[in-house]
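Chain A, query sequence.
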Amino acid sequence: MAKGSINVSVENIFPLIKKFLYSDHEIFLRELISNATDATLKLKHLTSIGESKADYGEPKIEIKIDKEGKKLHIIDQGLGMSAEEVEKYINQVAFSGAEEFLNKYEDSAKDAGIIGHFGLGFYSAFMVADKVEIITKSHTDAPAAHWTCDGSPEFTLEEADKTERGTEIILHISEDEVEFLEEPKIRELLTKYNKFMPIPIKFGTKEINDPEHEPKTTTDKDGKETTEPHRQITVDDIINNPNPAWTKQPADLEDGDYKSFYRELYPMQFEEPLFNIHLNVDYPFNLTGILYFPKMTNDLNIQKDKIQLYQNQVFVTDNVEGIVPEFLTMLRGVIDSPDIPLNVSRSYLQADGNVKKI
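Chain A, predicted structure.
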């Protein structure tokens, strides 16, 4: 009898990830923002239990497009990494830093909202990029690190001059994926997948009326009134709602809050729902959400595919066949559960006993 270890050819991993792991190339942005969110939530947990001396502050994730340089930047203010951690978490395919973190801190981190699981999300970047860079600075005193890879098993790792805590991922977008350098496309993806992520996501800036400046009205000698225009200020354009209604306790919400959230979910729906149910289950699985009962129409097909499935506030699908009985598919709203079994790319449900229980 012979025994041994099965070897995986690293040269073949990247083509497999690009072609077969993720059905849609657009998933890369969801995965990288999920990683940035995890890095931020990890830092929040470590500062809360006294294991990090960093000032958590009010961190956000920023997305930048460099159309001329054909680069897309994803920047967070989270935990960051040392060179040794880059070696450990980036250079080992399918090694999940999120799962290691949860195992290390066990019960104290079970409600931290960590998203990652399989350790493959970062590599989705190579579906749209010819080259990927990581510039990262740990929350510790470790020197910053700069990692570069062109999608082959070869990489470079050197010291960087980054001084601020966190990680910047730079995607050098390939020629056949230039749609991901267009502002409307990126905004569409951020709205689709990251609309309710728990960390604020900045995408550019916008002009708003200065809330601290009240326009003055003056009257001339003829009695004619003139009101000065609003003073405009520039603020970060935060494209997500980090604290959606379903993450709150029902006692903290009023009827107007539920109606407002319904309009946030369905901005083109003008009729208000008949009533809603706020879900908050913690046994035998964790599940939260808000389901709305809309006014019925004669066309039931229009009513379908309106329930959105999330996992830790990350959008997964609006095809909830298997969770919601067919006779209730006219419902609308959100179901969020960290226990829902997903395939490795988090794109659809796995056949699993937990689905039937739900």
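The longest helix spans residues 27-48. The chain has a mean pLDDT of 83.
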